Q: What sequence folds into this?
């Protein structure tokens, strides 16, 4: 039986000095938010208000709760259970230390018998900062298992949360109860049988019986602890686009002398997943002297090679304690609606709460899960390795039987020059070892990118002037695990961040820099607003609405170009994940396709269309066209589907200035399952129209559900 | 007290049928050799005699020894100790099974009290063969921890040894004795202090005291078990060319009530070794989309980056049981004489015996040690992983405190298309995990080559017609961990392999194919003799002696080209290891620079000269020159030394047909420690000489100890 506590929280400059004021605290939640509410701090999402929260990163926080008088039966015990406290803390009972912990991902339990009426206190130290790191840089995260993004990123302000960010409660437990259930399985080679293995950790005594219910709710088998059982012809779990994400539910009951003592339940899907070498990779090694072949990165699910389409998932809130199922649900439903089948949970962020994985299981979204290491050199000091091992064990044990969990990964961009970790780094050898020990069947990648894979770019028009249309067809990678095209945010999002007067006409100021419209990167084009590209293409916009529309036009076309080009490069390429899906606060501009909190940009629909199982697609050489020029594109039928597509035809039309120019009717042949068809190069000489503003020129493929449009520019 | 046993051995087609005949057996040794001696089989090194040994790979072998009556004092025990039996065996005492073991690298002990007069039997099963592999292919080694080379290679016949290949003896032990000593240390950042840690595994009781004696033999400290001690200003161990390989010796004495019960001794060197990123690698990543950076492969010893020069070490005998210090000593002394500082112990071979590491410690030769996996896909079946873990643990525990041991490596060419293992392969994840757990401070490479590194080629003139002079300057790799240039073997070696009549004129026949002169590779040039290149360059040779001389001329110049070019590419490149150093039997042709058993080829001197700490070197564009052509080479001063080289001058002369043509005097500036100097491109118009046989044309640099010569061809 779980019992909530009533918490207060206060802050202090030192653990030795009690807070001057205690305020009401939400648990799970964040100390800083509770404080802000009580102290009347303005909304951190707006303007530069977040700067008023910055002082919190140097605070100690004290949580207090009075333990109620709980009547305990014979053999009953009372525990305080903390599922996750962020980040380093001491637990005290009436001033007596019960324990100390560093790390936000571990669950801790404290026995509290006879504690009724006593004061439970949790002192949380200020967020960790690597003393060797540059002050106020993300490198300060490099000796802790704390998400680096909170230390500031090009899409996230520096604002480091502290607090009881996961559930924390009193729990009255009988002598006999279920501490833990691990239900795992192996599938045989043709997936016609699942051999289930049930491990139960039981306190006290009792007989455990587990019933497995099929996706239709009917019981399919029962088994006891430490038993194996065979399930014939399990309904397989498939990721979105490849079949149903069939889930079974199990319920385990602990009985003693015919009496039920405890029960636990959960869900499980049956699927086999491995990484296989991308087609053509083994053969591509050229002449001596000869290096190694790139890594395997094709997800093979239940024997079927998947083209992984998806996005990089980041924290949906700055104050991660507030995240719950209601936060995840609209976002993940959008991810499924985008025809995605895989999310890369980026290593700069938190490892998500259970609700996230429940939803991914249910929606058929595969999860690439990184450990909390990103863009830093996490040095293998003994103190760091100790905490990393403890926290990684907690993460792996919590998630290892998750159906949607596809890949473990050490973290983000660790082998690039800005991080300077290598295969020799103790932290990554440790993570590989722990994953191998605790979850040997699941692939482990040291980082992303690895040999053959690539990250970037993050612009429609590159710094060297080339457009995404030119760069992507020339690239040849096995997986594009990050790429971005920025846009200005939706109007509603912009107005959460700033007053319209501060953002239109759009220019550099404290607010537009804080919300990432300018200065996110050091380059000439003013990321992420990229005003100079917008001005070059379209001229100055007359209104914020127009500016947003033009910017999202570029974003949508850019993303279509990359997703579809990656698909054209199949099977050598097998993965395309844009940077990024969502965001943690209202940005003014950025690469996300969904604005905070869950508002899709216009480009969301473009990405969704580019990720349809089958579509007619164009390889387009450039964005801007002129009268008299010969307009020419390559036709493709992209098919990731598992069904053959019957022969058919697609009408190719160009629409310009109210006119429709019929280019051709492409009669395509049948497309085998999971196979693209390259069609002809088609085009026409563009008419010379009267001068004027740049006009939209729409390339249209009419082919039923496979129809597509591309919006280009005529000048 | 160790007591040898008197062994006999016999063979049988089945474990259930006793051998018809038992013959005297050498231990350590090989069953097949004992049998061959008794049965009068001809020398396996000669002709195709080895074929008469092939049947042995399907034999069961039975070793027998009668346990003598050993008087045991009170508390004394009698053990049978087997340090390594190749490969799968059962131990029986008077027909009662004492144990079963798979794997040749583990030490096993069996308690034999009261066994006096009883018969000890060891049944060895036929060598393992993966049932999924092509018959008689090296792939048959892919589910065992048995060196793959024995299954046949392009320089090694198929001949798979079995037997008691390491020491095996009776041992009378008192109640109190030292089972194991592990003396390890960490050096502080400036190497001025070694913190020693002594772990002792003691049977019974007693007080252990360890004395450490310095390189000069004087005691520097004493310590007890489970103690740490600090050694101030240790004399550091250096690899050859960088300083003295200073070794300390320790002696541990176990005493009880003032009486010595047991003692053990060993050697230890103090050094710090890590792999660092090669210079320029972090910076070389070009534009987006961006992959990962190559792996670090610069050996940094005691803070000094080393240019690793060396060779690939292979089994020095087919019958590995006969290998002992006398086998290793002349070979390793040659390796040191060749100015080598690192040997790559290739994964197709055995993990060498302790004598090998003793000698490498003493000679300053770093060891890159691979596990016994090579050129196969070692599938992660549960049975294989179990044996691999057990054997790898034995290997790591035996070698982890070895001074010379520089790098662990999973095996040879496992990430190439002919092996098809990847970072996901369970066997390699397991090895990485075990090395991290048992020996965390030592670098681990999954295989060679990795990102940035390269293997090959193995010819002077490539299959596409390009010479090594053209290919190598165009290559850009961080480490050349295998490259070969073949030659015909020394006359003495050839005559161990065949009668002269069978090998001159040299042509394909059963003997020349068996001894690798032809058919080693499928290409046009008849590897390894490469007669067509020899004929193209020199015309037909008049004698075997001349053929050998011409062939070794090409080999020597080819190896000089590669070693010196790799050094010119420093610091981006930091390692050059030729394939291979030695060989396991008399070949007629091959890449080795030392013929079986320890006879240097002419090219050995060329390699030795190319690996001097400092030399004047030429970048030469091609081998054959014609009258009237402009002869031109690039001058370099190559300096791996730790001292600055004072300014000086090198006279550049070309000698042709008895004439000396002075090209120039190069006045080079001072060369900083460990830094090369690129000099001018120099040359002259070649005189037109009368027609005739191709003539030797010698390029000579006169510069004292840095003098060099290059022998080219004028036609």
A:
């Amino acid at each position: 039986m779980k019992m909530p506590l009533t918490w207060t929280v206060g802050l202090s400059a030192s653990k030795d000095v009690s807070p001057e004021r205690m305020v009401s605290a939400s648990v799970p939640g964040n100390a800083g938010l509770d404080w802000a509410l009580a102290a009347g701090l303005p909304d951190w999402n707006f303007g530069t208000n977040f700067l008023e929260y910055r002082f919190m990163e140097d605070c100690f926080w004290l949580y207090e709760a009075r333990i109620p008088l709980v009547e305990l039966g014979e053999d009953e015990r009372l525990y305080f259970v903390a599922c996750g406290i962020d980040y380093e803390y001491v637990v005290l009972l009436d001033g007596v230390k019960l324990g100390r912990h560093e790390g936000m991902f571990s669950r801790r339990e404290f026995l509290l018998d006879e504690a009724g009426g006593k004061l439970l206190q949790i002192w949380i130290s200020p967020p960790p900062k690597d003393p060797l790191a540059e002050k106020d840089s993300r490198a300060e995260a490099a000796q802790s298992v704390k998400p680096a993004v909170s230390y500031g990123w090009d899409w996230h302000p520096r604002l480091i949360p502290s607090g009881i960010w996961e559930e924390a409660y009193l729990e009255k437990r009988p002598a006999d109860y279920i501490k833990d259930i691990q239900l795992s399985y192996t599938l045989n080679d043709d997936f016609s049988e699942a051999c289930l293995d049930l491990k139960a950790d039981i306190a006290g005594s009792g007989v455990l019986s587990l019933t497995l219910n099929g996706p239709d709710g009917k019981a399919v088998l029962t088994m006891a602890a430490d038993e194996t059982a065979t399930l014939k012809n399990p309904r397989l779990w498939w990721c979105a686009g490849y079949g149903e994400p069939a889930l079974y539910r199990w319920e385990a009951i602990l009985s003693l002398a015919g009496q039920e003592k405890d029960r636990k339940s959960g869900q499980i899907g049956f699927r086999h997943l491995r990484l296989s070498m991308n087609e053509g990779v083994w053969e591509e090694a050229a002449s001596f002297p000869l290096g190694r072949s790139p890594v395997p990165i094709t997800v093979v699910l239940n024997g079927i090679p998947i083209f992984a389409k998806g996005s990089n998932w980041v924290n949906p809130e700055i104050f991660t304690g507030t995240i719950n199922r209601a936060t995840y649900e609209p976002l993940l439903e959008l991810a499924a609606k985008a025809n995605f089948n895989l999310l890369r949970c980026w290593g700069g962020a938190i490892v998500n709460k259970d609700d996230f994985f429940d939803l991914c299981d249910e929606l058929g979204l595969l999860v690439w899960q990184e450990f909390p290491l990103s863009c830093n050199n996490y040095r293998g000091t003994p103190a760091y390795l100790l905490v990393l091992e403890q926290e990684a064990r907690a993460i792996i044990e919590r998630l290892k039987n998750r159906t949607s969990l596809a890949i473990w990964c050490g973290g983000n961009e660790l082998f690039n020059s800005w991080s300077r970790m290598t295969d020799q780094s103790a932290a990554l050898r440790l993570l590989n070892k722990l994953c191998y020990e605790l979850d040997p069947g699941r692939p482990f990648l040291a980082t992303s990118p690895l040999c053959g894979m690539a990250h970037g770019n993050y612009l429609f028009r590159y710094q060297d002037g080339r457009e995404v249309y030119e760069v992507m067809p020339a690239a040849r990678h096995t997986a594009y695990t990050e790429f971005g095209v920025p846009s200005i945010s939706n109007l509603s999002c912009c107005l959460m961040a700033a007053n319209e007067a501060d953002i239109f006409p759009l220019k550099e100021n404290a607010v537009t820099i804080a919300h990432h419209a300018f200065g996110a990167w050091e380059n000439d084009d003013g990321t992420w607003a990229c005003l100079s590209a917008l001005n070059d293409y379209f001229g100055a916009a007359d209104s914020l609405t127009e500016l947003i529309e033009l910017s999202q036009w570029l974003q949508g076309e850019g993303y279509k170009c990359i997703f579809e080009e990656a698909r054209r490069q199949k099977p050598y390429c097998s993965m395309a994940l844009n940077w990024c899906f969502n965001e943690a606060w209202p940005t003014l501009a950025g690469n996300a396709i969904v604005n905070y909190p869950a508002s899709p940009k216009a480009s969301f629909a473009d990405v969704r269309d580019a990720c349809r199982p089958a579509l007619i697609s164009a390889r387009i050489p450039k964005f801007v066209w002129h009268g008299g020029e010969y307009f020419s594109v390559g036709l493709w039928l992209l098919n990731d589907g598992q069904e053959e597509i019957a022969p058919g035809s697609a009408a190719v039309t160009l629409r310009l200035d109210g006119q429709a120019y019929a280019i051709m009717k492409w009669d395509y042949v049948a497309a085998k399952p999971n196979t693209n068809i390259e069609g002809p190069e088609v085009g026409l000489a563009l008419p010379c129209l009267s001068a004027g503003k740049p006009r939209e020129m729409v390339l249209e493929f009419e082919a039923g559900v496979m129809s597509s449009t591309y919006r280009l520019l005529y000048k």
About this structure: The longest strand of chain A covers residues 177-187.
